[in-house]
Amino acid sequence: MAAHSHHPAHHHPGRTPDRIDWSSRLTMLRQADELDAEAHRVVARRLVRALPDTPTVLDIGCGAGGMAVAFTEALVARGGGTVVLVDATPELLDAATSAARSAAAYGGDTTSAPVRVRPVLADLAAERPVDLAGPAQLVWASNVVHHLPDQRSAVAGLVEAVAPGGWLALAEGGLEGKFLPWDLGVGEPGLQERLAAARAQWFVRMREDTHGSVRMSGGWNTVLADLGLLDVTAFSYLVDHPAPAGQAVRDWAVDRLRWFAEIAGDLLHPADRRTVRQLLDPGDPAYLGSRDDVFLLLANTVHLGRRA
């Protein structure tokens, strides 16, 4: 997971270099997809607008299927196409495929659904996207590349899967998601910032510990341009659920904080670890899951480039 996003990327624990058990994250990924659904729809419509009729969209590291559903809806609205879902975790791929096929069949029976949904179980650390499903008019990869040992080489592999004139959309970077008020009434104020710092340290360590890890210097736009893509640009989209938020946001915040504690807990001061335990304890008055001041605010950035 990138040092900014509220979504983990998606890989199989037994095979992938990042050593994260993604199948256990299905509930959390589904929660995040639910909270991002509106933003995803806007992004998907924007990206498919430039594509030819009945295009193929390749969703790399599809996770629980949030963007897959958005792409399917966007293609249904403009007369059809194909959505190819690629993930290394069977549980996630199954969930994404079911969700996207439901979206394709919505308003009609499955036999006449204008959008075909095709799942591909594959590990990107070992397989080339173009061999799995290319060439596609749009290749989408969200918070996936930074989990692969050689990020630049991974992007080169994505570029190979883009059809001539097609687009690569790489969702990486943005602004770290915030969900806690500055002063929670327990512990020292500013916990969110210290959690973010601990997570950034964890992320550096995760990259260093990834087998065969190669450092990528510079920004994503320079990588896309160096790999020969044209019209390289980017846009960011906001996910904004202000307080008082619904239960879905609170549940997400509890899971999110628990995840922080798991991955970066040892990097926090013992006093902060105590505060985190209080916030995660349903019997504590400070429990995150029943607070009115929990919210969700973040920005994700999508980097775009066109293949000649």
UniProtKB/TrEMBL annotation:
Give start-end positions of Basic residues composition bias.
1-14
Q: Which Pfam families match?
A: Methyltransf_12
Give a yes or no for keyword Transferase in this entry.
Answer: yes
Task: Kindly list the GO molecular function terms attached to this UniProt entry.
Answer: methyltransferase activity
**CDD domains, alphabetized:** AdoMet_MTases
Instruction: Print the keywords alphabetically.
Output: Methyltransferase, S-adenosyl-L-methionine, Transferase
Name of the protein described by the UniProt record: SAM-dependent methyltransferase
